[in-house]
UniProtKB/TrEMBL annotation:
GO terms for molecular function: hydrolase activity; transferase activity. Keywords: Hydrolase, Signal, Transferase, Zymogen. Residues 1-20 form the signal peptide. This is Gamma-glutamyltransferase. The keyword Hydrolase applies. Residues 379-403 are annotated as: Disordered. Gene3D superfamilies: 1.10.246.130, 3.60.20.40. InterPro entries: GGT_bact, GGT_lsub, GGT_ssub_C, Ntn_hydrolases_N. Pfam families: G_glu_transpept.
Amino acid sequence: MRLASIIGLTLALVATGSHGQQASDRHAPEAGTGGAAPVQAGKARDFMVVAAHPLAAEAGRAILAEGGSAADALVAVQLVLGLVEPQSSGLGGGGFLLHWSAEAGRLITLDGRETAPAAAGPDLFLGADGKPLPFFAAVVGGRSVGTPATLRLLEEIHRRAGRLPFERLLAPAIALADAGFPVSPRLAALIAAEGERLKHDGEAARYFFAADGRPLAAGAVLRNPAYAETLRRIAEGGVDAFYSGEIADDIVARVTGDALNPGALAESDLENYKVIERNPVCAPAFGYDICGMGPPSSGGIAVIQILSLAEAGGLGALAPGSAAAWRVIGEASRLAFADRERWLADPAFFRVPANGLIAPGYLALRARLLDGTAAQGPVMPGPVPAGQPAQDSGHLAPLPGAGAGPDFPSTTQVVIRDAAGDVISYTGTIENGFGSRLMVRGFLLNNELTDFSFAAADAAGLAVANRVEGGKRPRSSMAPTIVFRDGRPVLAIGSPGGSRIIGFVAQALIGHLVWGQDPATALAAPHLLNRFGPFELEAGTAASDLAPGLQALGYRTEITDLNSGLAAIAIGPDGLSGAADPRREGAVAGQ
Ligand code: DON
């Protein structure tokens, strides 16, 4: 794909969205779908952004083109995503960020994870009978809402690495919210699939459904004056205007006043929210250094473990894409998930052995379980035990298998490389599709607290590490990743997908770094995932051809939808090569 067409198409999409389809009625029907399909792969020389919606990618491109940094572009991109992909991320959610500063030669990771309200406790998701609530009974309403963190995260990275004024970065989202944007086919399908659940909250019902109760159709032009007004207040008063005062009051009132499922969020939770700089987790594999987000995300450690164990298990010598290769990747994943279940939680509440879990000696010991000399050998008899990395964990119980939950079409991935060489990989989320379904002032509130273990204790009565506690951050699987070679960034990548994120990212890394696939090929490749034993094979793809071979090795196989939303930029001597996952509506824009 040539550069000119990347820019041409994204500009055309913006022209359609903000001028060609101005709507006097917020729900004007059938005003067009935004034109041609987005550009989902492309090359550029100076800078690039990949995001989950063409209008968001274009907003980032425009900021980079006027001299903004990657941090500046991220602010604009996330605020547009909160408008055009509202089911996935936004002001009411949180995220994790990796930022490489070319000037400083330094990688930082920022934890913008939502926190449990100070007043929340281990019984948050237990019913009157003391048993864990059904998933959606916990999700919908105020109970699941953690302290929103996205704006504090954007403020922090802008403070550290921004170049343009913060207000300038709000402008694209304000303009689009005022003018309206065409509802995408994916958003329309997700609203329709939601049905009554999304009508729990009056503001959400009025926004996502027409007056006659029908879900918005693809192409309908949606204006969001409330969102524009929220952003204007932030432009005037800074991010503090969100964390105290009328906006904060409204968030708290909606959460605590929920008739069905009230939550415990308080003004003080918002006022006290802090972004935390964490140590990146980095380790070598296949001649590269893989760097990711540490706890409370399990993503970085699990991705590193999978790559390192697969290398030790002899993956490099096996035919790419063969059943034997997938056996090594699958067993490496099972080992990583066993450690994830046992060891990962908020490090402020549980002594997570983050360094021990990626230490070379520990990984070499774990790799012995893979039987690397006979990679065609049988599958490890389950269940796979967690390892014993260095560092005492205290006296907490193993985590239950809480990561096996279903996948939902939420969360968003942004990757950016600016003209100065700064690189960002950012995964943002409101957790479930449409989060808690509560909408305040034009944005949805997260349900991130359902990433905690619902059960507070295991069968033996011992406390679970990822149980709910006041002020704690729920364990995540988000895995924004930057890969380095000889100290230079060569790839930025990440994906949505709940606990499947780990496999999506690990697989794309293997495709690109080990099997030599270009980013578009690596992202489009059929998925095969193994978290807890059975192999999940992506429905409607060639992955199902491997079912007999994997069954012969001893696996149970399941053919299922695997809805990743990968985004990647490869940085090489010949420039930038980017791709957005063809399973979603993302786009590449650059110059
Ligand atoms: O933090 C996490 O791991 C989840 N809340 C992410 C949710 C997600 O990716 C939804 N799935 N598509």
